Amino acid sequence: MYTSELDIKRNLIWSIAGTVFLALFGAVYELFSHEVYSYFMIYAFAIPLLFGVLPYALLLNAKKYPGRTAAALWNSGAAALSVGCAFRGALDIYGTTNSLIIVYPVAGILLLTAGLIAGSVGMQKKKRSPERTGCAHNPPRQY
Amino acid sequence: MKRHLWTVCFTVALIAFTVYLALDTFVIAKVYDANAVETNTSMFDDTEAEEPAEPETDGAVYVGENSYVDGNVSITLTEYEEYGTTVYVADVTLGSAEYLKTAFANDVYGRNVTATTSSIAEANEAVLAINGDFYGSQEKGYVIRNGVVYRSSAKGAEVLCIYADGTMKVVNDRDYTADELVGTGVWQAFSFGPGLVENGDVSVDENDEVGRAKASNPRTAIGLIDSNHFVFVVSDGRTDESEGLSLYELAKFMQSLGVKEAYNLDGGGSSTMYFNGEVVNNPTSGGKIKEREVSDIVYVGT
After folding, report:
1. Interface predicted TM-score (ipTM)
2. Does the CB of A136 have a partner CB in chain B at under 8 Å?
3. Which of B292, B271, B282 is nearest to B116 (CA)?
4. Using CB atoms, which residue from B212, B214, B268 is nearest to A38?
5. Which residue of B has its CA nearest to A89?
6. Which of A117, A114, A116, A85 shows the shortest CA–CA distance to A102?
7. Do the chains contact at A97 and B215, CB–CB below 8 Å?
8. What is the pLDDT of residues B16-55, one digit of tens each?
9. Could you count the other beta carbons within 10 Å of the beta carbon of residue B48?
10. Nearest-CA neighbor of A73 among A50, A51, A44?
11. Contact between chains at A101 and B140 (C-beta distance less than 8 A)
12. Which of B248, B260, B243 is nearest to B206 (CA)?
């Protein structure tokens, strides 16, 4: 089953929304932080931008559609990194630490890697089956 | 539904973990030592101060509005107006550094165990107290209190060491273990920083700040004028009346008091000075004038 162009557009929109949300969240948080600033909070928006908006825009432009599984894993990785980045910013601003914060980047990188692998496998399967149109809703016609 | 199953499950897991992490960081109390009142005074046995500064008194106790004097301790409180900020300076002369003590909130060494500076001071019959380094918000950094090592994990930061001979020095925790410091006579050690004045010279520049806080803030600092002659300094801030101090301004002010060494402790809403039974400054917390609960204090007691 392959992700349709609609799915890619949907992921792109969600990524844009996540980018805008984190940009605003970071700005508002810094506004009330007594001018204590954290690069993690300020630049948290860059995670969904680099791992969401950019790749999905490129995929849409290239008309390449990875599998739904790949997209789900990749989005989860980007979400973990985004939340982790913002949370680390909050800890920095408060002036505290917690070693468990390491879970976010570890999970994020693992999920992104799994998404890449799943996407590559999906792309390879698609190349080996050129008669497939790439859309589960339009199987090849049988005469 | 099946199509979105992974998304739903992962989102729930991510939210649950984030909520747990927030509770673990800010709420859930962790007790490492439920009765952290031990004192190790062995370092005072062979101690001779360089030039012991003894309060001039016949042993009687005098308590004035801005002063306290007894046979072992002399304290004078003065208010200054510097950089648009009210600064409170307690000039402290001790018969021995043994009277410069520390205490934990509720006598518990742990994380998220806090109480107001005034309540900790009252519980320990402190004459003068300021907030400490809020060790409980950090997972690393030396914690040596009343001669006892509570945490020996270094974080590569400047540590303030107050010695049994009444002197004070800022060292880097990469250079010494906590036990080595106690072995050299360290009575109290704090891990917040940075050092403000070293050998009489300002050791921060205008771009140095704590936690990238470049603004003026309430501050707490401790300085050494001479052996067993200290200054405890607390500034107001974040109010219309008092803007607060940057680290550089704090360092310059400490230098103007004539200190040889000075060190920055936890500031912001934690900055509190307690003297003769009352809080003398205006601590701000959540936009209001009220004490923040802290994990430890530095105090003078007899």
Report:
1. 0.86
2. no
3. B292
4. B212
5. B211
6. A85
7. no
8. 999 999 999 999 999 999 999 999 999 888 665 544 455 5
9. 10
10. A51
11. no
12. B248
